[in-house]
Design brief:
The complex is a heterodimer of chains A (about 270) and B (about 325). With about 270 residues, chain A is mainly α. Chain A has 13 helices and no strands. Chain B is built from 13 helices and two strands. Classes of the chains: A mainly alpha (about 270), B mainly alpha (about 325).
Chain lengths: ~270, ~325
């Protein structure tokens, strides 16, 4: 009980910090992007404006979230060390594990607020388009603009962002912010090539290379599993079973990274 | 810093910004470099798919907009050597990034098949693009209908066209008219009636304003061709034994016509006094009629992916 309370307090403090650091200003940029795009896209895309707004909206939620997850995630621990506030924190009756969990929960809370507000803005723009589009263009829609299936893609984007935050936090517990950013971005990019890693084994002649890529395929975080944007935009089915498996995979990976971060951080010495 | 100290800095920044805006505004009259839009750095859809990570849908939209701009920009360009070299590569990348981008296949094939100067005159590439779409969505009867249309309209290959219409009609959920379209195409081949039927179906089923307008325009062209046929017969009969070509005024005086004949766009038809042929005015929005469209092979630059293929022919009327 006490642990949960401590983690909650640290999380709220991280959220307040991010608000103070004007992180939520990106919501204004997102809203402006959506409004300007919804006006301009219709003039440029020959009747594909709803599709393009969905693509743009989902991509922007991912991209803005990735920026927050990586660039704030890598500073969660190092900032405290640089400012030397880590000493006063550790002097308090807080366990190091609680600090890591609280920091992580705080950034996830910031991301959740971001994703919820950006999704609401996207639905608002799509709702506006659904009432203003001509009858001829309505026939071309593969799915209604305010299709609830978009939420499936948004849910998996959020799980992906939670995973990226965990990766950034993990690297920030033992390396400099610059290195942590490089490692995190590297892992996120490598995680997109899941299908290539899987098929690599079949096309290489060396058994060692094949087994190495197979091991990488199993161990590296599979970021592609969270990408169902194409399916929801083209009104293809995303079964609940898939959502459950992808979410469970993400949560397990996050748990592994958080435990590893806690172990590393609890053994770290600050002088 | 006090407000008084900041003022010179702000003024200086404003002055530089004003110069930059002025330069931008007068860019047309300033020295420029040749446009670099005739190059595509990455031509492989697969490579582009990897480069764009999980943002391939958004990248597909960007490439689609680029394809539209390339097509529209080249079409409006005053240059005579229009070969639309990037059109197919741009559409290929668009559909590789988003293999279910229906409009890119359907519009793209229309753009590719259009003869010079309105397009590259590459019905072969139009078919290749639609077949690529069918590879992803084998039950997409719309693509089969479009392939049949390209064979009928641009290749004048009625048998192959009918085969594609039949194939499209066999897909569950395909509209009834595809069966009659296949039959009509086989029965009357190159007659205008088959063309009219196709454009009417496109007009009625179009889910896009541009396509609907284009179909309406084509239907008006077919109406003009019918009207010109009737007027030509009337004119030939009125010429009589002397062989002199009468004017519309002569035919009005002889009460053979109720008024100066006008085409569906409202522009009067013309008579070529040298040949005695009834013609569509060049001022008409329906000009050029399909038969008057220049064959692409005459105009386009040789070679390159956007040049006309050996199979490109003029449209049928």
């Amino acid at each position: 009980m006490r642990t949960a309370r401590t983690i909650g307090l640290i999380a709220v403090s991280v959220f307040r910090d991010s608000v103070r650091d004007k992180v939520l200003y990106n919501l204004v940029a997102f809203a402006l992007l959506m409004i300007v795009a919804s006006y301009l896209i219709g003039q440029l895309t020959a009747g594909q404006d709803v599709k393009v707004i969905k693509d743009l909206g989902l991509a922007a939620i991912t991209l803005f979230g990735l920026f927050i997850a990586v660039f704030i995630g890598i500073g969660l621990v190092s900032k405290e060390v640089d400012r030397r506030s880590i000493y006063s924190l550790l002097a308090k009756p807080i366990r190091r594990q609680e600090l890591i969990a609280g920091k992580y929960a705080g950034l996830v809370l910031t991301l959740a607020v971001n994703v919820i507000l950006m999704s609401a803005a996207l639905y608002l723009v799509l709702g506006y388009m659904s009432v203003t589009e001509s009858e001829a263009l309505r026939k071309a829609w593969e799915a209604p603009p305010t299709d609830p299936a978009l939420l499936k893609a948004i849910l998996l984007i959020f799980v992906e962002l939670m995973l990226v935050t965990a990766i950034a936090l993990f690297f920030s517990t033992f390396s400099s912010p610059l290195l942590a950013a490089a490692f995190t971005i590297g892992l996120v990019v490598a995680g997109q090539f899941d299908a290539d890693l899987r098929s690599f084994q079949a096309i290489v002649h060396s058994r060692f290379a094949g087994e190495l890529t197979h091991a990488l395929y199993l161990v590296l975080p599979n970021m592609a599993i969270f990408d169902v944007k194409a399916q929801v935009v083209h009104a293809l089915p995303v079964p609940p079973g898939y959502l459950a498996v992808a979410t469970a995979y993400g949560l397990c990976y996050i748990a592994a990274l958080l435990v590893a971060s806690m172990v590393i951080f609890s053994r770290r010495e600050f002088r | 810093m006090s407000r008084g100290r900041m003022l010179p800095g702000i003024l200086l920044a404003c002055a530089f910004l004003a110069v930059a805006v002025g330069l931008q505004a007068s860019r047309a009259s300033l020295p420029s470099v040749p446009p670099a839009d005739q190059f595509l750095d990455v031509q492989s859809g697969t490579a582009m798919r990897r480069l764009t990570l999980s943002f391939n849908l958004l990248a597909a939209d960007v490439y689609w907009i680029r394809a539209l701009q390339h097509y529209g920009g080249t079409k409006l360009d005053a240059r005579s050597d229009k070969s639309y070299p990037l059109l197919y590569p741009l559409l290929d990348i668009t559909t590789s990034l988003d293999p279910r981008f229906n409009l890119a296949y359907r519009f793209g094939s229309i753009f590719l098949a259009e003869p010079f100067p309105n397009g590259p005159g590459r019905p072969d590439l139009a078919i290749r693009l639609l077949e690529k779409g069918l590879h992803t969505q084998p039950r997409k009867w719309e693509y089969m209908q479009d392939i049949g249309f390209v064979y009928y309209w641009w290749h004048h290959d009625d048998r192959t066209a009918a085969r594609w219409f039949e194939q499209a009609a066999a897909v569950p959920g395909a509209p009834w008219f595809l069966k009659s379209l296949a039959a009509t195409t086989l029965t009357i081949g190159g007659q205008a009636q088959a063309s009219r039927l196709m454009w009417q179906q496109i007009y009625q089923t179009a889910n896009n304003d541009w396509l609907k307008k284009d179909a309406a325009w084509r239907l008006q062209q077919l109406t003009a061709i019918d009207q010109m046929d009737r007027l030509q017969k009337l004119l030939d009969a009125a010429r009589g034994s002397s062989g002199d070509v009468p004017s519309w005024g002569d035919l009005l005086q002889r009460r053979l016509l109720p008024g100066i004949p006008i085409d569906p766009s409202g522009t009067p038809y013309e008579i070529d006094q040298a040949t005695g042929a009834v013609e569509l005015s060049r001022r008409s929005s329906l000009w050029p009629l399909p038969a008057e469209t220049a064959l692409p092979a005459v105009h386009s630059a040789p070679g390159g992916s956007g040049g006309p293929g050996p199979e490109a022919r003029g449209p049928r009327s």
